[in-house]
Structures are given as C-alpha cells and as structure tokens.
Amino acid sequence: MLTFLVISILLALFMVFRMPVAFAMGLAGFLGLAVQLGPRPALSVLERTFFDSTSSFILVAIPLFILMAELLTAGQVTRRAIIACQSWIGHVKGGLAMATIAASVILAALVGSSTASTAAMAASAFPEMRNHNYSQRLAAAVVSVGGTLAVVVPPSIVLVVYGVLTETSIGKLFIAGIIPGLLTATGFVIVIKLIAHLTDQAPRGDAFNLKKAAKDSRHVLPMGALLILVIGAIYGGLASPSEAAALGVMGSLIIVIAQRTISVAGFSSSVSRAVKATVMIVAIVACSAIFSNYLAFTRITHTLLDFVATTDMPRGVIMAIIIITLLVMGMFMDQLAILSLAMPLAFPIALALDFDPVWFGIVVTKTVEIGLLTPPLGLNAYVAAAQTGVPLRKVFLGVTPFLAMEILVLLLLLFFPAITLWLPSLMVR
C-alpha cells in the first residue's frame, strides 16, 4: 500500500508539471512494476502490455472515424450543415441558437471531437448570432454546450476509447448514445427557448425563405445519407464499428470529391491531423494498460472489489461517489485523461455491483461531458472564449443554465436505464 501511495503521488506530480497524461501513466506504472517485480520482469510486462493493447483490431475504428471527420470538415460539409440548419429554424425567436444546437448534433456525428466541434461553431455560428443582436453571453454559451454533444453522439471517439479500455461493445455504445445525445440537445433547446422568452438575449432572425432553405440543404443530404448508412450498418448487424468506419471514410471521400470541395493539400492535411490524433489516443490506451497492469500486481483493484462486496453501503451510494469523483476530475482534466485514469478502478467496481457496462459507459461519458463546461478547466468554455473573444467569466456565466439541464439529463439516465438500453436491446447483434 505504501508503494501504491508513492506511485500515486508521483503520477500526480507528473501531471502537475504538465507531462502528457499518457506518458505520466506509463512512466508511473512502469516504475511501480519495477519496484514490485524488478527491472527486467517489469520490462517484459511493458513489452507484452504495449503490444497486446495496441494490436486490437477494434482500434482501427479510431483513425478511420477521425479521418472521416477530417475529410468532411476539410470539404466544407460541416459549414454547409450549419448554414442549412440556420435557414430552416433561424427565423423564430432564439432560432439561430436552436439552429446552432441542431447543427452541433450533425457536427457531433461528423467530427466526434468536442473541442473541434466547438471551434467550428465558434467560427461560423457565433458571428451569425452576433450579427442578429444575440448577447455575447448566450452566443458563446450555445457554442460551448453544442460542442459537448460530440462526446455522446456517435461516432464519439470518447465512446470508442471507453469501449477499448473496458472491452465493451463499441457498436452497442454507439447505438446507446443516440437517445441520450438527442435528449441532451432537446434539453438545450428548451433552455434557449426559456431564455428567449424571459430575456432579450435572443431576438428573431431573418424571415423564413423556403427556396433558400431547400437550396442550402441540398449539399447536406448526401452527408445525412452517409451517417444513416454508417450507424444503420452497425445497428442492423451488417458491419462492425471498424467496418462501418471504413465505409464512412469511403463515403466521405466520394462526397467531397463529387462536390469538388477538397484539394490535394486539404486531403493531405486531413490525413496528417488524423494520424496525429490517433497516435495520441493509442498512446493513452497503451499507457493506461501499463498502469492497469501495475494495479493488478498490487491487488488494489481486488482490495476495492472486496470492500464493495462486504460493505453495507447501497450500490446507489457507491455509484454516486463514482459520479461525484468523475465530476471533480472533469474540473481539471480532459475526457480521455479521466477515462484512462478512472476506468481501471471504476469499471471493475461497476461490474461487481452488477451495473450494465453499456449503461455505465454512457453515464460515465455523460459525466465527463459535463466536465467540459465546469470551471476552472472547462475545456469547451476555454475554446469558445479563445475563438470568440468573449471573456471567460462571461462564458462560464452563460453556460450555467445549460449545466443545470445537463445534470437533469444525467439524473434521468441514472434513474431510468431504459433510456440508454432500449435501442441496443433491439440490435441484431
């Protein structure tokens, strides 16, 4: 136990001094193994763990989904989706903000990254809202909260990483994330509607023009068909997530080439960004496995499981402790760091308490999504503030009512698991 305490302090110090979380976990785990087993056996475990954790076929889905998102973004499909949503519902009071949320759902299904989605919305939707006299606070808040939808809405990279770390079906996680994602977006729209009616922060947009709306939507329809095809293939059991991701890359490449919206330089840049993001994520997965092996050798996980088995605390209380811990971690870390640090301990406890792993994954994902908006390190708020020039304090103030809705949706998922598990229960496989 003393060794575990020392290694935990070392891990905390590594991260305090801004070492990347993957390397911090890998180094701390290796040092712990070296103390427990000796240097040579620790190197042997390191070699085997690194190979086993990075050779899984399901990891192929990560670079493919990222590349699909990069291609569609480089091909301006995401920008066109935002314009189309604004054309259809931007005319009602608060409509531009609602259109931004609708576009964020589409963007989430394309991009899979919350910060990338927030940056894209800040560049396109924020100026449009400001041009129509929306308050800075509301416009920046809508951009921030819209980006969080990419954490839950498939194909979410966070869900893929959770599936890899816990060996949970990524296909079921994707399908399970659909209703919670749409429920969250609906909650955001309700908040915007209330703000629009109770304050003057969200005036009406331009008058509705059916011809313009139809014209703006025509370039988005192929992308919508592609998303239905990718998710439908997984839902119907026709393709694994990795195969569906390959289908998505092929389809996105056909779309951007057919619409002549991507150049050779743009394609090259998309591949480069996808490779960089993939290397970072795979490094986190591998180093998390090293740290998990150290925890297994120290029997810390077994000690926690024994405690759970013998404690008189209701399992709801233990779940509440896990949720609160994740919420606190979300104030200081990004989503992938939280998953890689917390899942080696939290997931076995969830299984011991007989929680469904798919339901637990969505709840955990929803919890880390909330962390993207909470100070002092609400990553989406920082991105929105940097991209829009709105003071950070004002952004955090603006997201407060949306945070209340996020907590409400989280409670609904906790108390009514059927919201999450109904669609996966209908899957062919």
From TrEMBL:
One annotated GO molecular function is: transmembrane transporter activity
User: Which Pfam family, an example, fits this chain?
Assistant: DctM
What keywords does the record list, in alphabetical order? Cell inner membrane, Cell membrane, Membrane, Transmembrane, Transmembrane helix, Transport
Leader peptide range in chain numbering: none
> What InterPro entries is this protein classified in?
DctM (IPR010656), TRAP_DctM (IPR004681)
Q: Would I find Hydrolase among this entry's keywords?
A: no
Report domain TRAP C4-dicarboxylate transport system permease DctM subunit positions: 9-419
Record's keyword annotation contains Membrane: yes
Positions of transmembrane segments:
50-69, 105-126, 138-162, 174-199, 220-238, 244-262, 274-296, 316-333, 402-423
Q: Which GO terms describe its cellular component?
A: plasma membrane
Please give, as recorded in its UniProt entry, the membrane topology of this protein. Multi-pass membrane protein
Give the location in the cell: Cell inner membrane
Q: Where does the protein principally reside? A: membrane
**Function statement:** Part of the tripartite ATP-independent periplasmic (TRAP) transport system.
**Which NCBIfam families would you find in this protein's record?**
dctM
Family statement: Belongs to the TRAP transporter large permease family.
Which PANTHER family is this protein grouped with? Answer: C4-DICARBOXYLATE TRAP TRANSPORTER LARGE PERMEASE PROTEIN DCTM, SIALIC ACID TRAP TRANSPORTER PERMEASE PROTEIN SIAT-RELATED
What is known about its subunit structure? Answer: The complex comprises the extracytoplasmic solute receptor protein and the two transmembrane proteins.
This protein is called: TRAP transporter large permease protein
- The record's gene field reads siaT_6
